[in-house]
Fold these 2 entries.
Entry 1:
Amino acid sequence: MQSVQWHNLCNGAISGDFFRRCTTRLPMSDSPITNIPDKAVSDSRRIEQERLLRQRNALIAITQQGDAGLDTTIKYLTYLTAVTLETDRVSVWLYNDGNTAIRCIDLYELSKNLHSAGAILKAEDYPMYFQAMAGLNVIVANDAQEDRYTREFTGDYLKPLGITSMLDAPLRTGGVVSGVLCHEHIGPERVWTTDEQTFVLSVANAISLALERAEHQASHAQLERLLEHCPAVIFRLRVQDGKVIPVSASPYIIRLLGYSIEEVITYEWWHESLHPDDLYLLDGSIGEGFIDNKRSFEYRVRHKDGGYRLIEDHRTLFRNAAGEPDEIIGVWIERINRKGPQEIKSLGVG
């Protein structure tokens, strides 16, 4: 049921009533906010308990969702928040590179059950709002058309859309404000409760984490492309129990020596593949031969076809807090201008 709900939810196929029925079936603890008889509390108390229950169930739903990609996650969270807070408009905006404007990457309208995107708001048109968003944890505008931070929107945004109240929270990635989570209420002015403000901050944190995860994935993909086309092998070795253990190698190892990454990430391969006459270069203690924790030397490594390739090895040694060798980051470059192994020599070895 959950996978169907997730798929349909982001395509606008589930109504608010259906979602509320689903969330109220989530397992509850013995907390006082559950199962309180109507006759034992006032209407206001009952309304508060129902509101808190919706928020709690929504937060549980957020923690149970996996990584479905940034676009799907954002659509899910704007829908979820609109239904939970019974707010007609919930949107996510991101700053441009110069922080001179924000662009809407998703707006969910509860009354229309519709997602849209693309609107742009410029800082020069709404300076008070942009200034507040850079310095506040949340903007609580019960009377948005008169609030000092949001009244700039009145003429061309709030009145035309019938928006009376706003509740906005900044999105932060890498410790800086990178966007806004915006809630816009249509109808009579609304007083945002403290628990609603706290809930919005929690959702903003979830969106911020999704943005950071997407940025990390994009950076990782870019790095993978760079390493794949870099005409050198970048490798990492871990120092453990007096041995140097291969941890990782970049994809160019396949083109350089014909081996897959999985084949070269073994201690045995590194020693068995080195030319017997060059093994002496790796003799001695692990930290030996490094000058200012750097070392460069050349040796022959066996290609998968049986022949040998002359490799230039540049390494940097990293030490732990006790000053002991901890790991090595190195680069292999093939040397093709040497006449033979007799010209192999150690470079910069002390």
Entry 2:
Amino acid sequence: MNEISDEDHLPTVVVLDPSRPMSVPIDALTALVGPVEIAEDVPAQVRDRFAESVPGARVLVTTDPECEAARSRLENGARLIAGERVKGDGLVAASALMDRMWSFGGWEVAQTHESLSNYLLEETYEVLDAILAGDREALNEELGDLLLQVLFHARIAECESTAPPVDIDTIAGALVAKLCHRSHIWPANLRSRSTLRRRSGHGISERLRRSRVPRSLTALRRANPQGCWLSSM
């Protein structure tokens, strides 16, 4: 059980993870025993867990360390308690935003896998263009646009009354399961680097040989798929 320390009497800013606002940093438990001020950015589901928000209280709870109230306190020497950021939090936020867009109805919910197929192809080509141009800023943006297509198709699949159910989590789960059985996660007995290189090269060649050429590619690309993709690497 955490005991109240001298630090818990200091002005404190507790920053909640906006993707997981109900998860409170363990270091903040004792700081939250007394009166707290709840910033406006904190979701209602979290605000309702507190008896009240006390303006000017020693402890401020927020999801935005850059908000005016937080910055003012931190500039005056307040202690900062924040949960550790997890790599991939941006993906969680992007998925939540897709759900929000979907909730508005309209154009989004009228789309199908088929109606979005041209967008998917276009965004893929734009990613390749950014790679060939060596433009990292454009690559960042185009990969984001491609991610939107993945999220969109996942959201459409989630609403389809088919079995087995498909959503962004089952898609990610299937990818993790597949990668865990792929050759790049090497067994302990494959210790030689030359063996790894041979195994890796064979795996790439085998996948290319067995790959099915997408019908959506142009005739020229379909005629020479391996040359097209490998020449751009």
